[in-house]
Specification:
The protein is mainly β. The protein has three domains: about 170 residues, no CATH class; about 200 residues, Calycin beta-barrel core domain (Lipocalin, Beta Barrel), CATH 2.40.128; about 55 residues, no CATH class. It is built from eight helices and 27 strands. The strands form six sheets. It has a ten-stranded antiparallel β-barrel with strand order 2-4-5-12-13-14-15-16-17-18. Strands 1-21-22-26-25 form a five-stranded antiparallel β-sheet, with no helix packed on it. The longest helix is centred in the middle third of the chain and has 15 residues. The protein is elongated, with a radius of gyration of 31 Å.
Length: about 450
């Protein structure tokens, strides 16, 4: 078998070839929220700010008291308050579906290194010594270097609280569920029985308030749209400010190879970083949240994108390559759209394992002539997505570019695995080329879903 590939312009072919880039299904864009819709009928993801909020987040946090220090206060619970609030860490899963928002948080609170704060080396870290490092405590702490334990002291005697290991970090969880209250994307819920309201401002700002007539907390979140967010919160008690916090957060994204295959999901990366930080900051198993994976499941999660051993569906592939706004616009992500103007529409980009945003004429099918059994045959050579049953590939021919018919009898000459989720297939027609016979070929791709 001998295959000749034609690279001349179409008009130079004696037997030219035409490629049809077609699809049978359009994905309609999301409609704006109905102004008259009841709150329970609202689609929160119609609002850009909730698309920016949704996902798996990691953050670095600072929490300061009214004097600008961080509290360091032992209690009857040896994992309650003796940790470094000047820099701690948060893992947040925030999911949105329909009119609901749910979030699950685990905060890792690193231990405060006490040994270096015993400035006079007398075996006790005093209230004054802690203050010099920016921490406020009602207790001195007698430290035992051999056992790395600290005993809370008050006025030179034990304060009656349990000693604790000052090298061990702790965890704290937070859970919040809210629902739409109107058709403007705003939410309400409760925090330990206290009413909460969430108000969105434009596409990039969220104001969260705890309290009804009495204000307990205001929290302002800014989402610039680049996978980051910044939050500040102010806490009050009887109208008096008692704390302020500053959060810096980054959202995890799926890892995707050049062929649109998800090699590692955002959730997998999120849970792996949690495990890494537990080890890095010495969170013993007894202090860890039990079954973190189950804790982080809200019930609102979308199905996981296909793993590297799986084939992404067309819909999954679109979530990788297009933002929610782009998926809502058929002119950008519709199956017949050609956003990069390379001659391949969205369905063909998916079928031929190409990038819809990067022009790549090299992924177009190629007209070939094949020498086989002493005759010359016309054929096509093209890449196609491996392992999918949701697409059909058909070669059609015409002698006048008007009347087209599927070639019912074709011969597969080769099928090569490219090792990147694609196959290269070479197919010839069943009948040999005849002298001075004009014939056109095209490849038709259909979605079977």
């Amino acid at each position: 078998m001998k295959i000749a590939s034609h690279t001349l312009p179409l008009s130079d072919f004696r037997i030219p070839c035409l490629f049809l880039l077609t699809c049978l299904m359009l994905v309609p864009g999301s409609l704006p929220a109905d102004e008259e819709a009841a709150p329970e009928e609202i689609e929160l993801l119609d609002f850009e700010v909730w698309n920016r909020e949704r996902g798996y987040w990691f953050g670095e946090y600072t929490l300061l008291n009214a004097s600008g220090n961080a509290n360091y206060k032992a209690s009857d619970d040896p994992t309650s308050g003796q940790f470094n609030y000047r820099k701690y860490y948060g893992f947040i899963n925030l999911q949105v579906k329909g009119s609901e928002l749910k979030q699950r948080n685990i905060f890792i609170r690193p231990a405060l290194e006490l040994e270096g704060k015993d400035l006079n080396s007398d075996g006790t870290v005093s209230i004054n010594e802690l203050d010099q490092f920016g921490f406020t405590s009602p207790y001195d702490y007698q430290i035992d270097l051999a056992t790395t334990t600290a005993t809370p002291m008050q006025d030179g005697i034990e304060a009656g609280l349990l000693p604790f290991d000052y090298t061990e970090a702790t965890e704290k969880t937070f859970t919040a569920n809210q629902t739409a209250t109107d058709n403007s994307g705003n939410l309400s819920g409760s925090y330990f029985g206290i009413p909460t309201t969430t108000t969105i401002i434009g596409n990039d700002t969220v104001l969260y308030r705890v309290g009804n007539e009495t204000l307990y907390q205001n929290q302002l979140t800014t989402l610039p749209g680049n996978g980051t967010r910044v939050r500040t919160a102010q806490g009050f008690f009887n109208g008096t400010p008692v704390y302020a916090s500053f959060y810096r957060e980054t959202r995890f994204e799926d890892d995707v190879d050049e062929n649109g295959i998800v090699t590692r999901t955002a959730r997998e990366k999120f849970l792996a970083k949690l495990a890494e930080f537990r080890q890095l900051h010495n969170v013993p198993e007894a202090n860890q949240t039990a079954d973190a994976e189950a804790f982080f499941t809200t019930g609102l999660e979308e199905p996981e994108p296909a793993a590297s051993s799986e084939v992404p569906s067309l819909a999954q592939w679109k979530t990788i390559h297009f933002s929610p706004e782009e998926r809502a616009d058929p002119a950008i992500s519709g199956d017949s759209a050609d956003v990069d103007s390379d001659g391949m529409d969205t369905l063909m980009e998916y079928a031929l394992v190409s990038d819809p945003w990067s022009p790549d004429p090299g992924h177009l099918p190629r007209l070939v002539t094949i020498s086989d059994t002493g005759s010359q045959y016309l054929g096509l050579q093209y890449r196609r997505r491996a392992g999918t049953s949701s697409l059909s590939f058909t070669i059609e021919s015409s002698v006048d570019l008007f009347a087209w018919a599927a070639e019912k009898q074709t011969v597969q000459m080769s099928l090569e695995d490219n090792g990147d989720g694609s196959l290269t297939e070479t197919i010839r027609l069943d009948t040999p080329i005849k002298d001075r016979t004009q014939r056109f070929l095209r490849l038709r791709v259909r979605s079977l879903n």
